[in-house]
Amino acid sequence: MKSKIINIILFSLVALFLSSCEEWIDHDLNVDPSNPSDVPINLILPAAQGAIAYSAGGELSRYTCMWMQQISGTESHAAGYEKYVLLESDMDNLWKWYTYAGALMDLKRTMDIAQENSSPHYTAVAKTLTAYKLGVSTDVWNDIPYEDAFKGEEGQLVATYHTQEEIYAIINKFLDEAIVELDASESVFSPGSEDLIYGGSLTAWKKAAYSLKARYAIHLSKVNGDAAYSAALAASANGFSENADDMVFTFGTPASEQSPLYQYIEQRPGYIGGLGAKMIEILKNNGDTDPRLAVYAKPTTDGLYVGHPAGAPLDEASQIGEFFAKKDASIVLMSYTELKFIEAEAHFMKSTPDKAAAAAAYNEAVKASLARCGASDVTWETANASETEGTISIEKIMKGKYIATFLQDETFVDWRRHDNILNLQLAAKANTSEIPRRFPYPTNERIYNSANMPEYGSITNRVWWDK
User: Fold this and answer.
1) CA distance 319 to 305
2) How confident is the model at residue 256 (pLDDT cuts 50, 70, 90)?
3) What is each CA distance from 254 to 98, 170, 259, 266, 328, in whole angstroms?
4) Which residues make Cβ contacts (< 8 Å) with residue 311, sequence separation at least 6?
5) Is the pLDDT reported for residue 463 higher than 60?
6) Which of 8, 236, 267, 362 is most buried (CB neighbours < 10 A)?
């Protein structure tokens, strides 16, 4: 009986002690100040933009532009990429840190916080960026997760996939909603100087949203035919109207803000062998030598502009020009130049072509590209950017766009839509029997989400819209 009484007393003391802990223990002691649970949206937005730009100017452009023979990989893993040795392990960082756990998660948080605080201007910017990131992701992987990809806190650690067709519907839904929300008369929070792309300009973001609608409309040219061209032209009418409207992210000079291409060249000297032979060939044969050649490439020690053939043994070739390879280079996400090429293609390819409009859009696109990289040449422009309805062709339009979208993954999309125009040849000693048309899924998806991950077969298989 005595022991029973003692046990009751001890139990009561323990219960009293535990209840008292609620009053005197500082619960903030268990909060990591370097990993706060609540972060203001004006801090999340620039982080998302940085992740988007770093991947666009990094792995996305390196893989796709080596395949498109704009640049060449000649050492270590870069030599493998050029020969189409792209493994699922090569996808892990791009998928996890620069897509889902990074950019898209930050943008989802931005949308959630903005909605909770009646801030449609912020929601609109996040939706526009999400549409962009979903677009570049589905275009290289095909089917991808989205709606289930951010439910880890709810205990859902694997995500179902959307078909590419469904992802495109989500992209257009976000862009349509963003366009409306950017016109909202009231917004508790609106982006400002923390917006590292447009400095908080809602007008600029609205033009960007329309321009992206034009891009993703024409991506579906193989699926929707004439409707794709009509949709692209309708959206472009409200899109960019000059180079100053471009959707770009510019890196700074501190080590932590150096452009991804600059870092790659500095940290892995020799991995990029320089410009690809196809890129140099097209520039040299574009009229009396395209003036962008001297901007895109550095001459060799012999003072020549030489491209490196895909898969060939290492030899001296022209390196990437300072404009693109400097510390504070700008990463183009969407541009006025691209939009004018979209217009040119749409006018030319629709069932009732308007070749005069196609020629005018093409001429403006070329001039805008020259101006953007500081290569304007009146004499050359007069001779080569003066197409008419009788001289313009789809070959000129797509080759012109190939030049203008140097080091942008958009070139990979265009090649798959018009793969007979560039006539790219298989790299020497290639790992596949044809040029790849998609990326593999990452290792972690196969290991931890295999029940949901679609079979992709081979990197030479086609994505949904690549009929």
Assistant:
1) 9
2) low
3) 21, 37, 10, 14, 9
4) 82, 83, 427, 428, 429, 430
5) yes
6) 362
C-alpha 383/C-alpha 391 separation (Å) is 12
What are the C-alpha distances in Å from 244 to residues 194, 373, 382, 399?
19, 13, 23, 24
All domains of the chain, ordered by start, with CATH?
Answer: 42-153+160-247+274-429 (1.25.40.390)
CA–CA distance, 13 with 9 (Å, rounded to integer): 6
Residue type, 120: P
Closest of 261, 301, 310 to residue 281, by C-alpha: 310
Confidence of residue 257 (pLDDT cuts 50, 70, 90): confident
Q: Exposure string (b/e) for 32-71, b if CB count within 10 Å is 16 or more? A: eeeeeeeeebbebbbbbbbbbbbbbbbbbbbbbbbbbbbb
Q: Indicate the pairing of strand 144-145 with strand 247-250.
A: unpaired
3-class SS of residue 332: strand
Greatest C-alpha distance within the chain: 109
3 state DSSP class of 322: helix
- Alpha helix segments (H runs only) across 386-442: 394-404, 410-417, 419-422
Q: Find the radius of gyration of the CA atoms of the chain.
A: 25
pLDDT at 451: 96
pTM: 0.91
